Amino acid sequence: MAATPAPPKAPPKPTWDPRKPEPPFPWLRPTIRIRLTLLYGGMFLIAGILLLSIIYLLAAQAIHEGSGQSFQISGSGVTIRSDTCPELNNATTDDARNAALKACNDALKQHALDGLLSRSLLALLGLAVIAFAFGYAMAGRVLTPLGRITRTARAVAGSDLSRRIELDGPDDELKELADTLDDMLERLERAFTAQQRFVGNASHELRTPLAINRTLLEVHLSDPNAPMELQQLGKTLLATNERSEQLVEGLLLLARSDNQIVERKPVDLAEVASQAVDQVHAEAEAKGVEIRGERAPAVVQGNGVLLERIALNLVQNAVRYNVPENGWVEVATEFQHGQAVLVVANTGPVVPAYEIDNLFEPFRRLRTERTGSDKGVGLGLSIARSVARAHGGHIAARPREGGGLVMRVTLPT
């Protein structure tokens, strides 16, 4: 028997979240502008130190060579007075005068060199400040196109593929990069729009025959004289047709929810979650699953119908994929760190951590309890993730200790 091929791996998660808040001190980040400034200023500082060292050595050599001649004082009645070298005033002998004169000459040379060094260091410090400021300004001017490219990339990452960089200026490497990115964004927008149009058109086209099939089956099932075998076959076909309709509706909703939400209204996640719980309450009672949890007010700006779809899909999955006895589902909403949070946790089968990413892929289920065709069409979590992204939020899942999952939806307010 041929081995079953392994399912394709889920795509890697993005390492950068465009909705990630800015750090509290953005000027402390090691940005390219700061690094270029440090590079320019550091190179100037090193060159200035080398130049100052060379000037100091040359000046010391010149002073030494210029004062290399020795002076000898001899004779009687010689009086030398100096305010700079008071030792000469107290010298009474020729040897003392000569020694004091030599010491005074050396002290004057050292004083001149020290003065040259201190003034040069002050000048170097001032020029270094000017160099760093000039380097920072020039780096900002050079990197302005990169900032524009980054802002456009952030907008595109937020599902706005219509944005373009449209960089003007000289035809340099940065403009070439911007034009290349614009061409890539245009191709991506065409491909993405064509894909959505295809899914939408296909879903609409499939609705009509499925609706006709459902009507015909319901008409035949309403006939009281129909044989029992025919009625059983009609019920089976009607259930299959209903599942196909759910699949089409899911595909249409998935294609629609991938777009950015334009019209937003205040929506309370607590109310949305409560409505989802009310819709699933009968199914939960039939399966013996308890639904609990505190739902605090958490208002977001978004589409109420799509947000209700998130809550409904998560609660339905939590009820359907639960333990046979004494199962529970906890549905909670809260306002945390400036964001609205919806948490749905449930008891259920043990879910391996490496299977978590696969659950959000369309038509993907676990290999065990989630393979039953009567539990859904495999689009619930995909739709929930697409709706969350369209609202600028995200959804994450983690295995619960003892079995089941903890689904956490975070949406900006």
Automatic annotation (TrEMBL):
SMART domains assigned: HAMP, HATPase_c, HisKA
Catalytic activity, reaction form: ATP + protein L-histidine = ADP + protein N-phospho-L-histidine
Domain Histidine kinase positions: 201-413
Transmembrane helix found in the keyword field: yes
Keywords, sorted A to Z: Kinase, Membrane, Phosphoprotein, Transferase, Transmembrane, Transmembrane helix, Two-component regulatory system
InterPro entries (alphabetical): HAMP_dom, HATPase_C_sf, HATPase_dom, His_kinase_dom, HisK_dim/P_dom, HisK_dim/P_sf, Sig_transdc_His_kin-like_C, TCS_sensor_his_kinase
One Gene Ontology cellular component annotation held by this UniProt entry: plasma membrane
Pfam family of the protein (one): HATPase_c
Leading EC class: transferase
Domain called HAMP: residue spans: 140-193
Positions with biased composition (Pro residues): 1-15
CDD domains in alphabetical order: HAMP (cd06225), HATPase (cd00075), HisKA (cd00082)
GO MF annotations in UniProt: phosphorelay sensor kinase activity
Subcellular location: Cell membrane
Broad class of the protein's primary localization: membrane
Region of interest (Disordered), residue spans: 1-22
EC number: 2.7.13.3
Name of protein: histidine kinase
